[in-house]
Amino acid sequence: MRRLARPLGVPAALALAGLAAAGCGGAADAEEKPARSVSPSASAPAKPAPVTEKPAPPAALLPGAARIVRPEIAPANGEKVGVGQPIAVVFKQQKVAKELRAGIEGRLKVSTSPKVPGAWYWDETKGDTRVHFRPEKFWPAGTKVTLDARLAGVKLGTGTAADRDRTVTFTIGDSMVNTVDLKAHTLTVVRNGRTLRTIPISGGDESKGFGTRQGIKTILAKEGRVIMDSRSIGIPRNHPDGFYGSYDYSMRETISGEFVHAAPDNAESFGKENVSHGCIGMSTENAKWLYGLSRKGDVVEVKGGVKPKPMDRFGNGYGDWNIDWQEWLKGSALGLRTG
User: How far apart, in Å, are the Cα atoms of 285 and each of 4, 188, 301?
Assistant: First the structure.
């Protein structure tokens, strides 16, 4: 049977990465350009070139603001995440004027050990303003990252200010870069530069408009056993393309419902054809093995489709790595920071 949709219920933390969930392979309503995969290296240079930071202007302050916004920050303090995890600061339902952004960036200090230069990038999607920080290439494994967000009383807009200062420290785990080849029907797992396994898979059925989004994504959450229901993408269960069931070892890639997971009901298609509604399905044995090695922020790069459907840049997960570095720098108010 041809399955794969979204689960019934989405962890609230996923709101940091985008919008409310649609269905497996369902389109997000992000108002932006398609992503373009740039395949950054899994490791940064051992000795980064010296960085000259552009001075930040003083942030505009708004004491006694009529409206206070508490920025949402990911990852969480104390987390260990994959090499593809950006830092995300999201001002929910709040537009931030461009003339205020340089001052705000100056209040968002990122410190890393070892030193890894990076930059912030601003985006507005569905009424939210988000600012993400990433290096040019994937984080080096083992990097310790601290965000000192000194935003208390900082003006965000007319009558609106941020609520308080926050400090978040997290660590980058082992490098896990998974490459999905939709043409070859495989997922190749590379951990710390070493290829561990090439897994036969089945991706989204492009002939029915269910193609898997291509480009670089990250694991948003390890959700384990997930109930998937075709009604979540507008397909009745009794339709020829309908489905309902639970699937184990599910790891979410997009808010709209693309997962990497066990799909034993599609076993005859692994390594041969793409028959899902957008998810990457594999045997239970392989899914269990991959689930045990993986964490939030690990990289999943998808390529090889006949009718490419690009990964959203923002609003449907973390599509940050599909943006060319020079374009990323242009999306920053201050440019390169020392890290």
Answer: 18, 15, 22
Question: Residue 339 has what pLDDT?
Answer: 87
Handedness of CA 22, 25, 26, 31 (dihedral sign): positive
Q: Which residue has the tokens 């070859």?
A: 184
In this structure, the strands spanning 160-162 and 155-157 are antiparallel
CB 35 within 8 A of CB 313: yes
Cis ω before 114 (30° cut-off from 0): yes
pLDDT in tens, 94-134: 999 999 999 999 999 999 999 999 999 999 988 999 999 99
- What's the pLDDT score for residue 245? 73
**For residue 236, which phi and psi values (nearest 5 degrees)?**
-60, 150
The CA-based angle 287-290-291, given to 5 degrees, is 80
Look at 27 and 276; give whichever has higher pLDDT: 276
Query: Which pTM does this prediction carry?
Result: 0.87
Which candidate, 11, 173, 150, 160, places its Cα nearest to that of 96? 160
Q: Of the candidates 82, 133, 142, 77, which has an alpha carbon nearest to the alpha carbon of residue 294?
A: 82
| 116: three-class secondary structure by DSSP | coil
Nearest CA among 22, 201, 229 for reference residue 126: 22
Q: What is the DSSP letter of 337?
A: B
Q: Please identify which of the residues 24, 132, 277, 279 carries the catalytic annotation.
A: 279
d(CA 298, CA 292): 12
Q: Is 24 tagged catalytic?
A: no
Quick check: is 261 catalytic? yes
Strand pairing class (67-69; 160-162): parallel
Reported as a pLDDT band with limits 50, 70 and 90, residue 39 is low
Q: Give CA–CA dist 115/260, Å, rounded.
A: 33
CA dist., res. 337 & res. 54, Å (int): 8
135, 180, 200, 208 from 274: Cα distances, Å? 34, 12, 11, 11
| Annotated catalytic residue, options 24, 132, 185, 261 | 261
